[in-house]
Structure formats: structure tokens, C-alpha cells
Amino acid sequence: MAQDASNETARAPSVDELTPPDRTLMGPGPSDVNPRVLRAMSTPLVGHLDPSFIEIMDEVQELLRYTFRTDNRWTIPVSGTGSAAMEAAIGNVVEPGDTMLVPTNGYFGGRMASMARRAGGEVVEVDAPWGEPLEPAAVSDALAEHDPDVFGFVHAETSTGVLQPDVSELTAAAHDHDALVIADTVTSLGGVELRVDEWDIDVAYSGPQKCLSCPPGASPLTLSDEAMDKVLSREEDPRSWYLDLSLLEGYWGDERSYHHTAPITNVYAIREALRLVAEEGIEQRWDRHERMAGALKAGVEAMGLEMNAPDEYWLPSLNAVRVPDGVDDGAVCDRLIEEYDLEIASGLGDLEGEIFRIGCMGHSARPANVIYVVTALGDVLESMGADVDPGAGVTATRRALGE
């Protein structure tokens, strides 16, 4: 019996060749990846200190500066997902005993708060309901009341489909109180207008898998000189060695000294994704996202559905659509996967069960995809008894696209 068990343990598992389904990705991320990016990932590896890779690192940093609209020297792709860039930003800038002001108007403001507490900071809040942006007056009042060291806000809230307007007003108010500003740009970088330097943002982090249409693994982060000065003058080391920017600057800065083995294939990928941004032109890319998402919005509204966010702070890259009465949002998402190989998502947090989250990001923001998602969503909703007019939705979408 013991011999049989040993033989069973020693037997190699039989696993078939990898054949994932070919989905159309129109959820909150990841988005469809351009074939050029996939080809870049299949090119030969080199060492993470190879002279050719050092040149690639320089190119990635320059392309990131262009995309962030910044001249910040400290602009790098963090090895990890967007949450790693988020933790690098907050975990380095927030020191034990610091106060960080965070918003309450979405899921990712809550994640900011959690990371700040883990960094040893005291968290205070500026209140705004889920699905609404921060009001500059409320931010000013909270700054005056709490006098924080750091103010964080979410530029594009993935959980609610809300784009934060008045960014320059928020940053000016924060700087009047000598607070550094950290912006979550995970769902805005490369998809909607973002101007780090002009808007006076001290730290911005993002993820590659949304509007950049790049597989996760190397995530954009940029810091102003003022923010990096605070990082380099800390009295106590950050709690994460891996994400310690004072160490990472030795690898991504002038020295190019060993810190960790970079995810080389992911750096290839983000380089090619950023080349695509530069070739298209960042402002033209912003315009394309607005046009494609506008056609999507026209279609779902003509069908009889409602957007969660009013027009004045609608987020083109992430469209939050109200779930119609009597419909199970999870069942709709399941049907779209099963019948159409199409991914959209349900709501998070306070909006769980109340909205669909439909991305229109990067390589996914194309006419064929927009028509497809409106057609498929209308078909599934009608079959489930929802009060919708799929034909009107498709017609409105095509008209908005000029077809």
C-alpha cells in the first residue's frame, strides 16, 4: 500500500496545452491587448542589467513621462500590478505618524485608507457619496480641519464610473496646507485627459492593463522632486523592502544597481504599449476614448438603460450602467461570457448589484467592440424580460460612430 502511494505521488501530472478562451474584454480590466504588445512579449529575454535592457529602461521611462504629461525624473514602472504601484506610492510617502486625507466616494478611496493605515499613518476622510466626485469646497474644509501631510484622491473611480473634475482646484487647496497630493490614475492614464505637471500632482500611480492595454506586471508610477525628497529623507524605512523607492531609485536611477530581477517580458510589453500611445498621440488617444465611449453611452441609453454618473463627471473609460429592475446582474454577466465570450462586470461595494461596469479602454475602445457589447447586452437583457429596445440601442451606437 505504501509503495502504491509513493508511485502515485511520483507520477507526473498530465496537463493539456494551454488554450484559454478568446474573450472580448469590455470589463473594468484587463482590456484587449494589441497584437504588437503580445509579439513584444515573445521576444528573447536578456538580463535585467544587460546594456540593451538598460536602454529599454530609459525608453520606458521617457514614454511614461510623455503619457503622464510630466517631466518628473522619478518616473518608473513598478514590478507588480497596479496595486503594487499604489502601495509603493502610499507606503513610501506616508510615514508613521503622518495624517492622510482620503475620499469616501468609492471602493479605491477605501483601499487608499487601508494602505495608509498599514504604513503607520492616521487616516481622516473627506466625505462624498458613492457615485459623486469630491467637491473642492468639501476638500478645502477637510484640509483646514485636519491639516494632513498627504491628500489622496481617485481621478477615475473604477467602482462608480465617475471622473473627478476640478483637479487643479483640489491640488491647489492641498498645497496651500503643505500637503503632498497622491492621485490614483489607474483607469485614466492613457484614456482620459491627465496632466500631472500642469495639474500640480505630486504622485500618480496607475495600472498597465486598463487604458494602456498591456498585461499586468509593470505598473506606472511618477513622483515629483518634492515627493521624492520626502521619501529620501524618511527617518524610518518603509515597511516594504521590495517597494522601497529609496532602493528602487538605485536600479531605475542613474546607478542602475541591482535591486531585484525585473519582470523583463512585462517591461517589453509596457514599452510597446507606450509606443502605441506615442504613435497615436496622447491627446488623439483621449479623443478616441471619448468618441468610442460616447457611442457606447448613446447605445445603452437609446436601449432604455441609465448611466450611473451624470454627464458632467461621466468617465469614458469605465461606463457604469444601472441594472434594470428585475434583472440579476450576475446572471447577465454569466450569460454574456457563456454565449458571447464577452466580459463585463458587476458593481463593487455600495453599488454591488446596482450597476454593470463596462470598460472602453485602450485596444478594446474600437467600433467593432462597442457595437458588439451593445448588441450582446441588449439581446441578453431582452431575453431575461427587461424593458429594453436592443434595436434602438444598436442603431444609436452606429449613428454615433458615423456608420
TrEMBL record:
Region feature Disordered, mapped onto this chain: 1-34
InterPro entries: Aminotrans_V_dom, PyrdxlP-dep_Trfase, PyrdxlP-dep_Trfase_major, PyrdxlP-dep_Trfase_small, SP_NH2Trfase/AEP_transaminase
Cleavable signal peptide: none
Chain ranges of the Aminotransferase class V domain: 46-306
Example GO molecular function: L-serine-pyruvate transaminase activity
Keywords: Aminotransferase, Pyridoxal phosphate, Pyruvate, Transferase
Entry EC number(s): 2.6.1.51
Cofactor(s) required for function per UniProt: pyridoxal 5'-phosphate
Class of this enzyme: transferase
Pfam families noted in UniProt: Aminotran_5
Example GO biological process: glycine biosynthetic process, by transamination of glyoxylate
Entries under Gene3D superfamilies matching the protein: Aspartate Aminotransferase, domain 1, Type I PLP-dependent aspartate aminotransferase-like (Major domain)
SUPFAM superfamilies: PLP-dependent transferases
Family, similarity comment: Belongs to the class-V pyridoxal-phosphate-dependent aminotransferase family.
The name this protein goes by in its record: Serine--pyruvate transaminase
